[in-house]
């Protein structure tokens, strides 16, 4: 089915949402819900379809064209298509690298637009924001060197694009220090919304960003991980009805701070509290996400 469905997508226009949205979803789940052997073949089939890749390029570009000021609060059919497009491309980036699959057509993405979508949000639906963050994570994990997607800064003359004005900017290229700090602050602000899906995506994006920074410039990564605002963020996440440390996003944040030795953010007292709560909890009744996050935290400690 991959052949006819991918060929059908290649014959469509981005406005054909009724056909494209379920078709892209089918391609996405075909990649994720199959055996490793079949997965490698599926990636090869999709990456060899030039028409499909050209269609995906147009869909991604529509993200910046379909952003009216009065965007509806619900997920429109156009936004749903954009979500499917970003998720599929993010998966193709990861699997192309994993299997070293031949690429017949490259995609081009403007990094400034991607970062601005997360930093400023502009009333984008949560699911679309999560999908764009999944893509950002994928290219960060590849150090912006994917064979499938060329990620560049906005080249328009009017674009307010940061220039590498310091050695730090040069080391983090194509990111700049200003973009990094704006992105971190925006991710922190999104966490305060306490939406489960959004929280999972934000923490994962923050983890990948700090890992990328650590490879590029350890001093910058440690500086970002030890920002005092992180501690206030933890207190905010622990406020309200559920004050337990055993929340997946809280545990993963704590793990991040332990990994990068941010002693001003997480102290021995908080570590002891988490271990005490874990000892008193009925592990069998904890959600799977919490158990996985707790395992990672304890392993890191």
Written description of the protein model:
The protein is mostly helical. The chain is 66% helix and 3% strand. The protein contains 15 helices and two strands. The protein has helices at 2-10, 17-32, 36-47, 50-65, 77-99, 111-120, 126-141, 167-172, 177-191, 196-216, 218-225, 229-237, 248-259, 268-280, 288-300, and strands at residues 107-110, 149-152. Strands 1-2 form a two-stranded parallel sheet. Helix 10 (196-216) packs antiparallel against helix 11 (218-225). The protein is globular, with a radius of gyration of 20 Å.
Largest sheet: number of strands, sense, barrel closure: 2 strands, parallel
Overall form: globular
The order of strands across the largest sheet is 1-2
> Which radius of gyration do the C-alpha atoms yield?
20 Å
Q: Please work out how many helical segments DSSP would assign.
A: 15
How many angstroms does the end-to-end distance come to?
A: 47 Å
| Average residue pLDDT | 90
Helix content: 55-70%
Kindly name the structural category: mainly alpha
Poorly predicted regions are 155-162
Strand tally: 2
What is the succession of H and E elements?
HHHHHEHHEHHHHHHHH
| Percent of residues in β-strands | under 5%
């Amino acid at each position: 089915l991959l052949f006819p469905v991918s060929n059908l997508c290649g014959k469509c226009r981005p406005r054909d949402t009724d056909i494209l949205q379920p078709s892209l979803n089918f391609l996405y789940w075909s990649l994720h819900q199959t055996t490793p052997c079949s997965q490698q073949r599926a990636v090869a089939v999709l990456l060899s379809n030039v028409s499909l890749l050209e269609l995906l390029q147009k869909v991604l570009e529509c993200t910046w064209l379909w952003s009216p000021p009065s965007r509806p609060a619900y997920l429109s059919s156009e936004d749903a298509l954009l979500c499917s497009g970003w998720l599929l491309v993010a998966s193709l980036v990861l699997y192309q690298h994993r299997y070293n699959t031949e690429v017949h057509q490259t995609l081009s993405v403007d990094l400034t637009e991607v970062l601005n979508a997360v930093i400023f949000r502009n009333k984008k639906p949560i699911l679309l924001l999560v999908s764009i963050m999944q893509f950002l994570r994928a290219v960060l994990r590849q150090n912006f060197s994917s064979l499938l997607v060329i990620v560049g800064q906005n080249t328009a003359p009017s674009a307010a694009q940061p220039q590498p004005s310091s050695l730090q900017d040069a080391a983090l290229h194509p990111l700049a220090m200003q973009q990094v700090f704006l992105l971190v602050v925006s991710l922190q602000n999104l966490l305060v919304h306490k939406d489960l899906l959004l929280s999972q995506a934000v923490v994962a994006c923050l983890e990948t960003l700090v890992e990328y920074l650590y490879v590029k410039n350890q001093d910058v990564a440690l500086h970002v991980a030890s920002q005092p605002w992180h501690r206030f963020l933890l207190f905010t996440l622990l406020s309200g009805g559920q004050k337990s440390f055993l929340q997946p996003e809280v545990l993963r944040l704590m793990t991040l701070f332990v990994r990068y030795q941010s002693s001003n953010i997480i102290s021995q007292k908080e570590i002891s509290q988490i271990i005490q709560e874990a000892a008193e909890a009925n592990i069998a009744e904890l959600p799977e996400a919490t158990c996985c996050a707790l395992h990672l935290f304890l392993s890191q400690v």
